[in-house]
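assembly run, all chains below
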Amino acid sequence: NAGVTQTPKFRILKIGQSMTLQCAQDMNHNYMYWYRQDPGMGLKLIYYSVGAGITDKGEVPNGYNVSRSTTEDFPLRLELAAPSQTSVYFCASSPQGIKNSPLHFGNGTRLTVT
Amino acid sequence: TQLLEQSPQFLSIQEGENLTVYCNSSSVFSSLQWYRQEPGEGPVLLVTVVTGGEVKKLKRLTFQFGDARKDSSLHITAAQTGDTGLYLCAGANSNYQLIWGAGTKLIIKP
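ok done. output:
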């Protein structure tokens, strides 16, 4: 059972480039989340989804987009990369909302924008 | 804006010592989760506390939720090198969002 799989593990982008961070889970979880983690800061929620076809903004959505066409996949799109988007990105999933079930995290994508 | 403050930010101690990590807020949470994160990996859940005053034990780790559900602590007894990692607390608020602390980086020296 792979859990939550994120690709790529590392990526360097030039300012203005675009890319998609991939996230897939094989646990049939309804809820999926994208977080960014910066040194000395807590995890910040970018976007989340409560099921296929439904997405919603989190705390820091600007500069990002998501889609959820299937239960398994939840890609995160950066359209015009900026240095402020240098961070480690984590995808997570849970069977129910956060009140009743913990998050299962992938191993992250380390993104550098120069 | 709800905040969850963790202290200390960094702790380096010798193997065998005891330590306590704190997670404090002025807000009430419906539950609080503790995660441990190792370098290059995502956070992994250790425990969830739900009831005010609740105490949960996980081997040498003891977790407590404050009576008012605004704070929590993690106590490690006789720390081992395998306890090294980043410890994160996260509180679930009334909007069913997780508010994360910044983490405590723990290093246990042999």
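Chain B touches chain A at residues 4, 9, 30-31, 33, 40-45, 48, 88, 90, 92, 96-103 (CB under 8 Å).

The first strand of chain B starts at residue 5 and ends at 7.

not gonna interpret more than that til we talk
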